[in-house]
């Protein structure tokens, strides 16, 4: 079976060109993007959070799956990197771009929980994990990628990933599934049971 996606967000080619020009190499891979779009499509009128916008490739995938009533908040520390996404996706009224440290944003956020959280940076994944999980609504999904070992990882990163996997798997209030696919994913769904 060929698992390459067959449908792509319209903005993706321009975002990829901009990423290449900016030397940005951290965008999600296209299989992960296609999963993001499918998970977003499963939430009509849903509330979606992305931690780590990058140049907006994940954002574009999420928006491509969301319906007209769904809303996305995407948080990024690096204004210059996020500007690439703002330029190409900012006219979409469903997305709100926040330029701020993700950890601070998580600490300060006082709004409603989210139906889908793509935690794609340090805060919400390697720090502030409990807070990010707290913001997942019952039945909502938390997704992380880049869990499969890579040659360029810093020395202590594998241990951090192991800790993250263990913490997520141990949570009694989430059902987790590990996907040894794409860059290595874990999807955790908050149990709707009290
Ligand atoms: C893996 S990339 C995001 C890729 C994007 N989600 C996608 O799917 O294409 C991680 C991003 O997190 C940003 N970042 C790093 N530290 C951060 C922090 N403390 N708060 C928010 N964003 C941060 C980086 O600048 C980088 O753009």
CATH architectural label: 3-Layer(aba) Sandwich
Mean pLDDT: 97
Poorly predicted sequence stretches spanning 5 or more consecutive residues: none
Q: Output the number of helix runs.
A: 7
Give the helices and strands, then pairings.
Blueprint: H1 12-22, H2 30-41, E1 47-51, H3 57-65, E2 71-76, H4 79-89, E3 95-99, H5 102-108, E4 114-119, H6 129-134, E5 136-144, H7 157-170, E6 174-179, E7 185-190
Parallel strand pairs: 1-2, 1-4, 2-3, 4-5
Antiparallel strand pairs: 5-7, 6-7
Helix pairs in contact: 1-4, 2-3
The structure holds S-adenosylmethionine.
Structure summary:
With 194 residues, this protein is an alpha/beta fold. The protein has seven helices and seven strands.
Structure, explained:
This protein is of the alpha/beta class. It has a single domain (12-190), classed as Rossmann fold, CATH 3.40.50. The protein has seven helices and seven strands. Helix 1 packs antiparallel against helix 4 (79-89) and helix 2 runs parallel beside helix 3 (57-65). The longest helix is centred in the C-terminal third of the chain and has 14 residues, at 157-170. The chain is globular and about 40 Å long. It starts with 11 loop residues before the first helix and ends with a strand. 41% of the residues are buried. The mean pLDDT is 97. Bound molecules: S-adenosylmethionine. Residues 26-28, 50, 52, 54, 57-58, 75-78, 81, 101-103, 120-123 line the site of S-adenosylmethionine (SAM).
């Amino acid at each position: 079976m060929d698992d390459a996606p067959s449908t792509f967000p319209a903005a993706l080619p321009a975002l990829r060109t901009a990423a290449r020009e900016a030397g940005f190499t951290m965008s999600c891979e296209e299989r992960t993007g296609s999963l993001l779009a499918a998970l977003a499509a499963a939430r009509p009128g849903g509330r979606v959070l992305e931690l780590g916008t990058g140049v907006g490739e994940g954002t574009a995938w999420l928006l491509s799956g969301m319906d007209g009533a769904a809303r996305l908040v995407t948080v990024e520390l690096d204004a210059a990197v996020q500007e690439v996404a703002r330029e190409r996706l900012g006219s979409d009224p469903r997305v709100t771009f926040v330029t701020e440290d993700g950890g601070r944003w998580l600490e300060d956020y006082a709004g409603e929980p989210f139906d889908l959280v793509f935690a794609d940076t340090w805060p919400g994944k390697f720090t502030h994990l409990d807070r990010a999980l707290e913001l997942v609504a019952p039945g909502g999904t938390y997704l992380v990628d880049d869990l499969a070992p890579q040659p360029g990882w810093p020395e202590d990163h594998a241990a951090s990933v192991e800790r993250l996997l263990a913490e997520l798997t141990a949570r009694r209030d989430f059902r987790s599934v590990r996907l040894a696919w794409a860059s290595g994913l874990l999807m955790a769904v908050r149990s709707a049971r009290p």
